[in-house]
Amino acid sequence: MNPRQTLRGWLYSAPSVSMMCLLLFGPLLAVLFISLTDWQLGQDSFSFAGLGNFRALFSDDVFLKSLRNTCIYVVLVVSGTVILGLFVALLLESGDALKGFYRTAHFVPVMAAASAMAIVWGTMLHPTIGLFNRVLHVLGYEGVGWLRDERTALLALVVIGIWQGFGYAMVLFISGLKAIPQSLYDAAQVDGADGVVDRLRVVVLPMMGPVLMFVVIVTAVRAFSVFDTVRVLTAGGPNYSTDVLLYRLYTESFDYLRTGYGAALAVVFLAIVVVLTLAQARAMDKRVHYS
Amino acid sequence: MKPLSLGKAGKVFRHAALAATSLFALLPFIWMLSLSIKPAGEIFQADFHLLPSSLAGLDNYRVVFATAPMLRFLFNGVLVCGSIFVLQLMVCIPAAYALAKLRFHGRDALFSTVLVALLIPPQVLSVPHFILLHYTNLLDSYGALILPWIFSAFGVFLLRQFFRTIPDELIQAAQLDGLSEAAIIWRIMIPMSAPAITAFGVFSVVSHWNDLFWPLIALRHMDLATPALGILLFRDDEFGQQFGPLMAATAVIVAPLIAVFLLAQRRFIDGLTVHSIK
Question: For the whole model, what pTM was predicted?
Fold first, then answer.
C-alpha cells in the first residue's frame, strides 16, 4: 500500500464518505439521540427523557395495535407472496409457450406506483360500483364494505400487498430455478423420482432453500415498510385497524410533531429491519459454508 | 431445465393457472382503463360492461389535463429522478473505483461501512433529513427532493462489485498507453460497466419515481410534486372525486414507467432484482 494510492483512495472516496456522514450516519445518530428526548419539531429547547419515549411507546394502545397490525400484515403478505410467486415461477419455467407474456404480465404490478394503484384498488373495492361487490351481487350476495369495515380493511390491504409483490418474488424464484443444474434432475430420474411431486420434494425445494429464505426476508422487509396503501386508502382506520408502523411514524413525527416519540418509533422500526436482514445474512452465510 | 415435467394435461393446467394469475395481476389496470374512458353515467350504471357504449368518456382525459398539472408532475418526476441518478453516479463511481481497484489504508473498513449503510431503511432518517433541510432553508424545493438521496450505498456496492470484474491488465495497459486515471475511469471502466450502471439506474429511477413518503414530507408547494404524490393531490382535489377522471389521471401517472418497462423489460427486471442479491 503506497501512500500515493492511499491519498488517491481517500480522495476518490471523499464525496461518498462525506455524504455518508451527512446523509446517513449523522442522521442515524440524530434519530437515536432525539428518541431519548422530548423534543417537538420547532421548539427551541428540549430535555432528556431517557427511555421514557420507549416506555410510553410500549404502553400506548395505538402503537401496540399498529405493531400487531403490521405483524399480521407481514405474515399474511409474505405467505401469500411467496406461495403465489413460487407457484407461478414453477409453472412458468416448466413450459415454453407464452413465457415472455406471462413474465411481463406478472411483473407490471411491481413497476406501477403504489399510491396510484392503491387509488385504483380503492375504486375496485367501492361498496356499490366496485368490481368485487358487483361480482358478489351477481352471485346473490350482499356487498361488503371492504375498506370501511374494520374486520376486512386490513385483509383488503393484504391482498393489495400480495398483488404488488408476487411478480417480484416470481422473478427471484425464476433465477433460482434456472440455477438448478440439469444433472440433479437426471440423477433424481435415475433414482426413480420422476413424478411432479417427487421432483419438487427431492430436487427443487432443497435447492431453492437459500432463494426461498432470501425471498421471504426481502418480502418481509418490504411488507414492514408498508405506507402508501394505508395513507391513500384508510389513513390507519377504521378504528386503527389498518394503522401500521410507518404510518404511525409519519403521523407522530410530521402531523403531531411529537418528534421524540416519532424517533423512538423509528428506532423500533430500524431494529426490526436490521434484525431481519442480519438474520438472513447469517442464514445465507451458513448455507454457503456448510453446503 | 424445466422444474416440472408436464404432460399434455399439465400443459393445459399451466396455461389455465398462469392465465388466472396473469388476470389477477392485470385486473386493476384493465379496470382502470375501462373506467377511464367511461362517462359518469355509465360508471354508476347498475349493469356493468367492460367497454363503454360511446366514446364520450374520452373527455375524462381532457378534463384531467385541463384541471391538473399532469405534465408538470411527470416533468418533476423526470427532473428529480434524473438529477438523483446523475448525482448518485458522480458520488458513487469514484468511491466504487477506489474500493475496487486501489489499495489504501482503511479500504476494507470503508467497504464494511458501506455494507452497514445498506441496512438502514430510508424512512428512519426522514426526521433528521427534514430538520437538515429546514435549517438550510431548502425545504419545499427540488433540492429537498433530490439532496437526501445523492449518496447510495447500494450504488457504491453494485459498482464496486462490477468494477472488480474488470481485469487489472486492461487498466495497466491503459496506464502504459499514458491514460490518466480520470480518463481510465471515464473511457474504460464506465463503458464496460454499462449493465451494472443501467441496473442501478433502473432501481434508482423506479424507487424515486414511485416514492410517496418523502415528497409528502418534504413538500408544501404542490407544483413541485412528483408523480406518486401528484396523483394523490389530484384525488383530493375537485375532479378527483369523479371516478372517470380519477382513473384517467391514474393511467397518465403509471403509463410512462410501464411504457418504458415494456420496451426494455430485461433491463428493468435485472435492475430491480439485482438490489436483492446483496
Answer: 0.89
